[in-house]
Automatic annotation (TrEMBL):
This is NarX-like N-terminal domain-containing protein. GO terms for cellular component: membrane. Coiled coil: none annotated. It is a multi-pass membrane protein. Residues 166-264 form the NarX-like N-terminal domain. It comes from the Bacteria. It is found in: Membrane. Keywords: Membrane, Signal, Transmembrane, Transmembrane helix. InterPro entries: NarX-like_N. Residues 1-28 form the signal peptide. Its main location: membrane.
Length: 469
């Protein structure tokens, strides 16, 4: 069982330090190779194994089944997409080329082997409703798949670490912050296992082990642990996010301790832990991003990845017939609009937004172009969180979700792309998107009519920055 050999804190520290020191100057990269996203995505695979286990337990125990099925479907989709991207490269995930390192490729093959067993059982659960298959899903996810993805993550970190970009201390802090998300799912799975009697999902002993590790890791991140190379938070913003995580942890910690002591958690206790995992998963993801961007030239590190994504992936979407035809049609329709007309349309949009929706908003969201944008967003496993396009006046033509305004003509995404016929791609600064709860940056790419050669609109991609790091 995985539970019998879960690394203790000291072992984890030693292992992480060794990995952080393994890179040599020869490993330094001069061109974008997707190193940060490879490391991030491989760690995400480890987390997904525990998300699968926790969701499988909920289905087996018949608690919050609908939400658990959604978690399972999302994890299955993301796992396959990420694994394929790590092996073969994926411009959609900002992984620029296929893996070449023999050691990493061996680790990928080991993950594929374990995943094939899990995926078969997942198919039985999700498509055939065979809840008996959840036991196999939980068992393999907790042991073989977890072990294989953990080795892969370590091998990728060793292969792609660059000591000139990331110090040993930074590597340790990032490992700790990223690992908190996985530990949350492990606690959730254990709590479900205790409540339902599914020992393959977890026991009192595993819950105690995971919660202790979570508590100590969070303390190390908040206060620093200089003896092993972990420094205090690098900025007030990181400090604030860790304090928020601590505040959330304090709320559920008594529930965890009671479950460890009594072995009889209530349904409310299980629900509280699930809510904690959802909330802190996003919070710790943002914390990881801030660690990556702290110090030195870190504030611009994401821009290299954004530029690569624009050059290798975004450019492929700009001549799609569905996009070109939609832009041509709206440009013709809006050819006679004056600025006063544009302002009236924008005010109407904003008024409907305040009311929670309306005919104008619904009509745009129901367009075929908007459907296509949503399909494109779903295909990026969280890398792109929003896509929309404007016509040659800066008015929205299609969008994957609601935007705060209808007219973008007074913003950089329009001014620095096609206004005055510039035809340049614009990259925004990173900022926290309150609605989605993630740090984002936008790529705004001008769209040219393939027949006339005129700039007819702008396609805007909101990119989840932490997925690039």
């Amino acid at each position: 069982m995985l539970f019998s050999h879960l690394p203790k804190l000291a072992t984890y520290l030693a292992t992480s330090a060794a990995i952080a020191c393994a890179a040599t100057p020869a490993a330094a990269k001069t061109a974008f190779d997707g190193s940060k996203i490879r490391v991030n995505m491989s760690n995400t695979l480890v987390m997904l194994t525990q998300q699968i286990s926790a969701a499988g337990c909920s289905i087996k125990a018949a608690t919050n089944v609908e939400a658990a099925r959604e978690d399972l479907e999302a994890a299955r989709y993301d796992f396959q997409l990420i694994l394929d991207g790590l092996e073969n490269g994926s411009p959609a995930l900002s992984i620029p080329f296929a893996e070449k390192d023999p050691r990493v490729l061996r680790a990928i093959n080991a993950v594929k082997k374990a995943w094939s067993d899990v995926d078969g059982s997942l198919g039985a659960v999700l498509t055939e409703g065979d809840t008996s298959a959840t036991s196999e899903v939980i068992t393999i996810s907790q042991k073989a798949l977890y072990d294989a993805t953990s080795i892969l993550a370590s091998d990728i970190l060793t292969a792609y670490s660059n000591p000139f970009e990331m110090s040993q201390s930074d590597a340790l802090s990032l490992s700790f912050a990223g690992r908190q998300r996985m530990l949350g799912y492990q606690m959730s799975s254990s709590l479900c296992g205790i409540a339902s009697g599914l020992t393959e999902a977890g026991t009192q002993e595993t819950l105690k082990e995971y919660s202790t590790l979570y508590d100590r890791s969070l303390s190390a991140l908040q206060n620093g642990l200089p003896a092993v190379g972990i420094q205090p938070p690098p900025s007030e913003l990181v400090d604030g996010m860790l304090a928020q995580a601590q505040s959330e942890w304090v709320k559920v910690k008594p529930i965890v301790e009671a479950a460890v002591e009594t072995g009889a958690p209530s349904e409310d206790a299980v629900d509280a832990m699930n809510s904690f995992v959802r909330d802190t998963k996003l919070l710790m993801g943002n914390t990881v991003t801030l660690y990556m961007l702290a110090g030195g030239d870190g504030g611009d590190v994401y821009k290299v990845a954004l530029e690569s994504y624009a050059e290798n992936e975004v450019v492929k979407w700009l001549d799609e017939p569905i996009l070109i035809e939609a832009l041509r049609a709206q440009n013709a329709k809006h050819a006679s609009l004056e600025q006063s007309d544009i302002d009236t349309l924008d005010l109407k949009w904003r008024a409907q937004m305040k009311e929670g929706g309306g005919e104008m908003i619904d009509g745009l969201l129901e367009r075929p172009l908007s459907d296509w944008f949503r399909e494109r967003v779903d295909a990026t496993a969280g890398l792109v969180v929003e896509i929309f396009a404007t016509d040659n006046l800066g008015l929205n033509v299609g969008q994957s979700g609601e935007t705060g305004d209808y007219w973008q003509g007074d913003e950089a995404k329009y001014i620095h792309t096609i206004k005055d016929n510039q035809g340049t791609t614009h990259f925004s600064d990173m900022e926290l998107d309150v609605e989605n709860g993630v740090y984002q940056a936008q790529i705004s790419a001008p769209v040219k009519d393939p027949e006339s050669g005129e700039w007819i609109g702008v396609m805007i991609f909101s990119v989840n920055v932490q997925s690039l790091l």
